[in-house]
Automatic annotation (TrEMBL):
It holds the Pfam family EF_TS. PANTHER family: ELONGATION FACTOR TS (PTHR11741), ELONGATION FACTOR TS, MITOCHONDRIAL (PTHR11741:SF0). Residues 72-275 form the Translation elongation factor EFTs/EF1B dimerisation domain. InterPro entries: EF-Ts_dimer_sf, Transl_elong_EFTs/EF1B, Transl_elong_EFTs/EF1B_dimer, Transl_elong_Ts_CS, UBA-like_sf. GO terms for molecular function: translation elongation factor activity. The gene is tsf. This is Elongation factor Ts. Residues 81-84 are annotated as: Involved in Mg(2+) ion dislocation from EF-Tu. It is found in: Cytoplasm. Associates with the EF-Tu.GDP complex and induces the exchange of GDP to GTP. It remains bound to the aminoacyl-tRNA.EF-Tu.GTP complex up to the GTP hydrolysis stage on the ribosome. Keywords: Cytoplasm, Elongation factor, Protein biosynthesis. One of its GO terms (cellular component) is cytoplasm. Belongs to the EF-Ts family.
Length: 284
């Protein structure tokens, strides 16, 4: 006769989020010992993690928080299905991950995974929960933003899912409304750099070669090429440099002009979108 009750099965399922049959089998194998059953379920899940390593984790959420040292942190935590992404266990895990990542001041996923999460690393924490739920989890992106003040904008692409696009804006000044408008603009316009001088020379050179080739193919006079190429490079900068983009709420002004008019200065930003890295890899 089994040394456990239906209440034990229910309690263990609520604790770990495991399936009914797996939970019951673990308790049977553990002869009703709850601690041993937990260990059996975790071991089974860890083996499953290895099998899931090559699967795609393109769903998930973004989460962010302001820290108390002039920084703010944002993470992208991924899973395989939207069903798991909107579940309480996954959302709770994101919060459990975000706090130690922020406390460690992690600025990339490698630093974040090594951060201490109450006696274990963030990587181990994620692995343990993934093992129980039965999907591949991945902490794909982590950013640390500096600033005097911060605005966090979380964009819902579906009312049934947690935030899929997240922005942190670090700024100086007092106009919170304008700061929030710029954060929303970033979510929409997806700039890569704050200032033109942050764009790597390799990126500029590659774009210049493409523009020159296109311009020559159009049959433009050789003497006019430099001016045309520089003009088109200017348009390229407006696509990727935040301060040079046309403000989405009032395209007559650039982001820099709007910020100056409202007495604020953008000093840093980060934008994360769930699955963006996976999309780019698949396109390649």
């Amino acid at each position: 006769m089994a040394n456990f009750t239906i209440a034990d099965v229910k309690a263990l399922r609520e604790q770990l989020g495991t399936g009914l049959s797996d939970t019951k089998k673990a308790l049977e194998d553990a002869d009703g010992d709850m601690e041993k059953a937990v260990e059996l379920l975790r071991l089974k899940g860890v083996k499953g993690n290895a099998k899931r390593a090559d699967r795609s984790a393109a769903e998930g959420l973004v989460a962010a928080k302001v820290n108390d040292n002039g920084t703010a942190s944002i993470i992208e935590l991924n899973c395989e299905t939207d069903f798991v992404a909107k579940g309480d266990k996954f959302i709770e895990l994101a919060n459990q991950v975000l706090d130690p990542v922020a406390a460690a001041g992690a600025s990339n996923s490698a630093e974040a995974l090594a951060a201490d999460a109450g006696g274990q690393t963030v990587e181990q924490l994620i692995s343990d929960v993934a093992a129980v739920i039965g999907e591949k989890f991945e902490l794909r992106n982590v950013r640390l933003v500096k600033g005097e003040k911060f605005d966090i904008y979380m964009h819902l692409t579906s009312k049934d899912l947690p935030p899929q696009v997240g922005v942190i804006l670090g700024y100086e000044g007092d106009d919170e409304e304008t700061a929030h408008g710029i954060a929303q603009h970033i979510a929409f316009a997806n700039p890569s750099y704050l200032e033109r001088d942050e764009v790597p020379e390799s990126v500029i050179d590659a774009e210049r070669r493409v523009v020159e080739e296109i311009t020559r193919a159009e049959g433009k006079p050789e003497a006019a090429l430099p001016k045309i190429v520089e003009g088109r490079l200017g348009a390229f900068f407006k696509q990727i440099v935040l301060n040079e983009q046309e403000y989405a709420r009032d395209p007559k002004f650039s982001i820099k002009q709007i910020a100056e008019q409202k007495g604020i200065k953008v000093v840093d930003f980060a934008r994360l979108k769930v699955g963006a890295g996976v999309e780019a890899a698949e396109e390649d």
